[in-house]
Structures are given as structure tokens and as C-alpha cells.
Amino acid sequence: MAEFELAIRGGLVATAFGAARCDIGVNGGRIAAIAERITDAAQVIEADGLYVLPGGVDSHCHIEQPEANGTVHEDGFVTASASAFAGGTTSVVCFVPQFKGGGILERFADYRARAAKGMLDHAFHQIIADPTDAVMNDEVPKVVAEGVRSLKVFLTYEPLHLNDGEYLKVLLAARRHGCLVTVHCENYDAIKWRTEALLAAGMTAPKYHAWSRPRVVEREATHRAIALAELVDQPIQVFHVSCEEAAEEIARAQARGLKVWGETCPQYVTLTAGHMDRPGFEGSKFMCSPAPRDTAEHARIWEMIRRGTLDVVSSDHCGFSYEGTRGKAQNGRAAPFRDIPNGIPGLAARMPIVFSEGVTKGRIAIEEFVKLTATNPARIMGLYPRKGVIQPGADADLVLWDPAKRVTITNALMQHAIDYTPYEGLEVTGWPTMTIRRGEVVMRDGKVQAEPGSGRYLPRGPYDLVKPRGVTPDGFMPS
Ligand code: DUC
Ligand code: ZN
Ligand code: ZN
Predict the structure, then answer these.
(1) What is the value of pTM for the model shown?
(2) Is the pLDDT of residue 478 over 80?
């Protein structure tokens, strides 16, 4: 019998600490050895001329997510898995919903069953949209026992947003239970006022989505989210940072030693508000929140990535098609921007865009790419060292990456169930040629081959990164 079930040979193995030419031996779905040369393997994959990267970890994606209005995101777990594998991602953290007036336990069971049908390894954030005493005291401990370690809150969006008192309640529960809090930072009341004023003035087209939520509403909410987290000594991650002024709030918090992390997304280094200014309804294809800004802001986001202020790039993948009754036009093509669902698909495009815009264009080194797309999301979400790293004992989630392959992004390449990609026509250099999940080849040259139902749930336990610092403004911390 061969010493290893699988060997990946001759590739440039890249981790958060750099890249080195070596071989990887895999047994039982896990990395068993990393050596200069591995000869005794039942199956050999040659990787000369390719990077071997940890499988991507996308810690913010909306897949088959039920919405309060009774719809479910179009991309189900099977198609989303194919899309993720096509783009080099092997693990995701997605969202169990909560609707106002409802609990979370039933939602958790339903969502777990949905995710089990896919091929991706998956963990969950629990959305808290209604932090009643019953939910926070009785139900949150139960989902924590089931392996949830992050509570997601929205400071905007009807009907999800929390006021400051409700947000504090979630922060305190997270602190008690050893969870991270992830936050959508935009000011609900300010956006509501702007939206009503724009609509009253007849400014209803998709492009006014960006006008309804300028940078200042993101900066203000980011500041507030951090200040309240500081007050109760609770670690948070600020989701989808779109602009320097919000990132600066995070940088200031980090400089003071607070446990505050910042995530951004490919749309904030590629799309602009100008994309939403296309004729007719076309601009809806680019509507997400926060809104895409401009090319000058892209450069500032890269700078904040280089400084380490923003240390994760997630997709914020959101499955709304352009056509059809569940997608962007669910309220008709004449709907004002307020009534067009927010969100864009990006599971498959995430890693190629970050590689091409980042590594190929010389903005970041390969080790930064690995950190942004795999190692940091795994660490921050408590999935490390099982995920996000190439080292003995880790799951053998690996991507063979051709740094020279030039590809023009098309919707067909995305392999999702959505009828468009906002990145159509974008040229990238650097593309995954093979994706391996727990030692199994699940994508080869764009062809996905994985058994539906083969994805594993990733229950998360307590982890040090989200421990409170033990510092409050005056030492007072009510239990
Ligand atoms: N913004 C979000 O906050 N969630 C889903 C999609 C989006 O654009
Ligand atoms: Zn959000
Ligand atoms: Zn989101």
C-alpha cells in the first residue's frame, strides 16, 4: 500500500508566510506531510508552474437564504457549491435568518437541512433581527451549542435593523457566549430620510441607490458600532467596508488595541456608482449595500488592505437574478431603487478578482492574497487551523492556481444559478485550474464533479480570538 493516498507534486505552495516549492501528501482527506519530494502515493497530481493555495474561505455569503417576504435566494447550495469550486473556494460561512416576531431555532434547523444538500463545507452566522429576551436568553445558547460562533446584526435595512439598545443587547449576549459579532454598518434613519427625499423628488432610478447612502452614513455607523462594542468589550468584525472613511474608524480602533476587524469585497475595488447609471433597469445589476463608490476609492481600499486594516475579502454573494419574479425585478422594472433587492453574486469571481487586481497588478504579494481569501477568514471565524492553511493536520482543501492564465469573466464561467454576473467582461490574469476539497478533486479545468450532500457542517467551538480583552472604559462590567 502506498504511503499517501494523494500527492500534489512540484507546485509553489503558498501560505500566509510565503511560497516554497514542495510536495504535499494527503491521507484521509487531510494534509499528512509536506516535503521536498513525495514519491510513494496512489494518486499523483503534477502542479509544475502552478501555485498550490489553501482552499478559499468565503466568510460572508448569502446562499439559499429565506427572506422575510417569503422568497428564498435563487442560488441554492448545489449551484452555489459549483460556483464556489469553480472559483477556488471550498468553505463558506453563510446566514441563518431571523425575522421580527420569530425565533431562531426552527430557522437554524431548516437552514442546516438546506446547506446539507450542497457540496461546500459550511458554517453559519446567526442573524439577530429581533433580540427578545426569549431569543437571547433561551435560544442563542442553543445555537451556540450547535456550533454557531458569530451573531450578525444590521444597523440598517427594513425589517432587519437594530437600534442602539438592541445592538447592545446582542453585543452582551455574544460576550457571554464567546461569539464574534459581525455588523452591517450603515445608518438606518439617515438612509430612510434620504430615500424618502429622493423619491419625493422623482429620483427613483437605480443610480439613486448610491445617493441614498453616501459614505458618511457608513462612516457614522462604523464609528457607532465600534464605540458600543468598546463600551462592553466585545470583539466585532465590520462587514463589507466600501470606503476609506469607514476603514479609518477601524484603523483608529485597532491602533487603540480593540478587537475590531474589517472586511471588504471585490465589488469595492472594481465597481463604481457609475455602473448603476446604465439605461433603464440595467443599473440594478450592480446594486448592493454599501453602494459601490468610484475608482479613487478603489485605490484607497487597496491602501487599507495593504496596511492590514481590512484583512478579509469576502464575496457578500447574494443570489438575485436580473430576470424573473424572485430577482431584481420582483417589484417590476419600474420599481424605485428602494424596492429593488440589494446584493450581487460573487462566489466564483472573488478569488480571481483579488488575485488579478492584487497579485498580478503588483498591489499585494501572494502571501497577502492567501491571508485575505483563506487564512484570515478562517482565523477570525474560528475555523483555523482546520481550514485556511496548508499544514499537517489541516483539511486537504487545496487550489491549483495558474498565475498566467488570462480569462474574460462571463456568466457561464460563474456556474451559479443567477442569470448574470456584475463582472461580465472583466479581464483577469490568474485562474484556478483545480479545486480539491478534503483530498477529493471537485473541480478540474472548470468541470465541477462533486456529490450533492457531500459538504460538511463545520461546528465551531470557543476560540481565543473572540475573547474579550478585559478592558472597559472604567472597569465596570455588569454580568
Ligand atoms: N448587502 C448586504 O448587506 N447584504 C446582502 C447584499 C448586500 O448588498
Ligand atoms: Zn450587509
Ligand atoms: Zn451580506
Answers:
(1) 0.98
(2) no
